[in-house]
Specification:
This protein has 6 helices and 16 strands. With 321 residues, the chain is of the alpha/beta class. The protein folds into 2 domains: 187 residues, FAD/NAD(P)-binding domain (3-Layer(bba) Sandwich); 119 residues, FAD/NAD(P)-binding domain. The chain is elongated, with a radius of gyration of 22 Å. It starts with a strand and ends in a 6-residue tail after the last helix.
Length: 321
């Protein structure tokens, strides 16, 4: 059996979205030897966003282009990058990340693994995934030219993706379990003004049906308990986020939904381990807040290691360390 090589860093960053890249830039500028690791290609969820209009400095920019700029900035500071890793184990107490052929050891770890779309967990959803059920409008929207679609949800993501889908589909239904929408007023205004969109409120999906691909959605009206069928060619759920924390579960404090709890310095319940962006318990999940979190985490990691070095200096003679 081939022995795995070891790589040692001052700061290991898990995740390469805006939080991860921001943390990497600030950590490397803080003179920490830094590596950014990801199980996917770099860029995180924003890479799939067609348009971002609320990141200061850019009145409008595609998510892919913005994240490309983040990565180029990190490259300027020579951050080590490891995409598409097969992570086998993470030990936060030891601050070790084990992959197929490498053991990464860090003095600090920043978790910036983000979150993913929640599933509806209804009959037919798993069966028709990739055959009419999709969680990414920008990825799959072009496949539905002149088709009828359903978007489930009432927040910004649901409405923005529904608006995007009208570029291809002839009709898009927005299905929401409540009477009112949760999206920003500007987004709601745009959706209401789009004549290809139709709202079905106080309604939940019960089942997705079809043969080879999606053909209909079974709905329940929450006010009347009426069950009805809606003929659609595709279903796009946007009902919230699930944190990407499976590899850390049980190792640190999380809230009831699995999001990581942090203090004011974004340190987790494990000393020297920090969390940034959508993966942590936070009141707002946006590119700008994720980038801010990354900067705070890196600054906290720098101070943590400075304090650790001072402790060693007080404990041992200078000629030893």
């Amino acid at each position: 059996m081939t022995e795995k090589k070891e790589l040692i860093y001052d700061c290991l960053i898990l995740g390469s979205g805006p939080a991860g890249f921001s943390a990497a830039i600030y950590a490397q500028r803080g003179n920490l030897k830094t590596a950014i690791l990801d199980i996917n290609m770099f860029g995180g969820q924003p890479s799939n966003y067609l348009e971002i209009e609320n990141y200061p400095g850019f009145s409008s920019i595609s998510g892919y282009e913005l994240m490309e700029k983040f990565e180029q900035h990190a490259d300027k500071f020579k951050v080590d990058k490891f995409p598409m890793l097969e992570i086998e184990n993470v030990n936060l107490q030891k601050k070790e990340i084990e992959t197929k052929d490498t053991i990464f050891k860090g003095k600090t770890i920043i978790i910036a693994t983000g979150a993913q779309a929640k599933q509806l967990n209804i009959e037919g959803e798993a069966e028709f995934k990739g055959r009419g059920v999709s969680y990414c409008a920008i990825c799959d929207g072009a496949f539905y030219k002149d088709k009828t679609l359903a978007v489930v949800g009432g927040g910004n993501s649901a409405l923005e993706e529904a608006i995007y889908l009208t570029k291809f589909a002839k009709k898009v239904y927005i299905i929401h379990r409540r009477e009112g929408l949760r999206a920003d007023k500007l987004v709601c205004k745009r959706a209401c003004e789009n004549n290809k969109l139709e709202f079905i409120m106080c309604t939940i999906p019960l089942k997705i049906e079809g043969t080879k691909t999606v053909e209909k959605l079974i709905l329940k009206d929450l006010n009347t308990d009426t069950i009805k069928e809606l003929n659609v060619d595709g279903v796009f759920p946007y009902i919230g986020l699930k944190p990407n924390t499976d590899m850390f579960n049980g190792q640190l404090e999380q809230n009831q939904n699995g999001f990581i709890e942090t203090d004011v310095n974004l340190q987790t319940s494990v000393k020297g381990v920090y969390a940034a962006g959508d993966v942590r318990n936070t009141p707002l999940r946006q590119v700008i807040t994720a980038a801010s979190d990354g900067a705070i985490c890196a600054n906290s990691a720098v101070k943590y290691l400075e304090a650790y070095d001072d402790e060693l200096k007080n404990k041992y003679p200078s000629n030893i360390i």
